[in-house]
Write a structure and sequence with these properties.
The chain is an alpha+beta fold and about 70 residues long. Helices cover about 30% and strands about 20% of the residues.
Length: about 70
C-alpha cells in the first residue's frame, strides 16, 4: 500500500470532474503555472501564480474558490 504524499508550499487545483482538469491542463496560458498531477482530479500550481491562475480560470467561465 502506498503512503499518502504530503506537499508543503504548493497550491492545488481540485475539480469534481477529471475532464475539467484535462481542459485546464490543455490551456496554453495555464500550462506554465501547472506542475505535477496529484490525482485524476487535482494538479499542483505554483503558489506565486495563484492570482494569475484564478483570473484565467474566471475568464474561461470557471468559478474558482481559493482556500488558505
Amino acid at each position: 500500500m502506498n503512503a499518502p504524499k504530503l506537499h508543503d508550499g504548493i497550491a492545488i487545483i481540485e475539480v469534481a470532474d477529471p475532464f475539467v482538469l484535462t481542459e485546464i491542463e490543455s490551456d496554453a496560458m495555464l500550462q506554465p503555472f501547472l506542475g505535477e498531477r496529484l490525482s485524476e482530479t487535482s494538479v499542483a500550481v505554483q503558489p506565486q501564480a495563484v492570482a494569475d491562475v484564478v483570473r484565467r480560470l474566471q475568464s474561461l467561465g470557471h468559478m474558482p474558490r481559493v482556500q488558505e
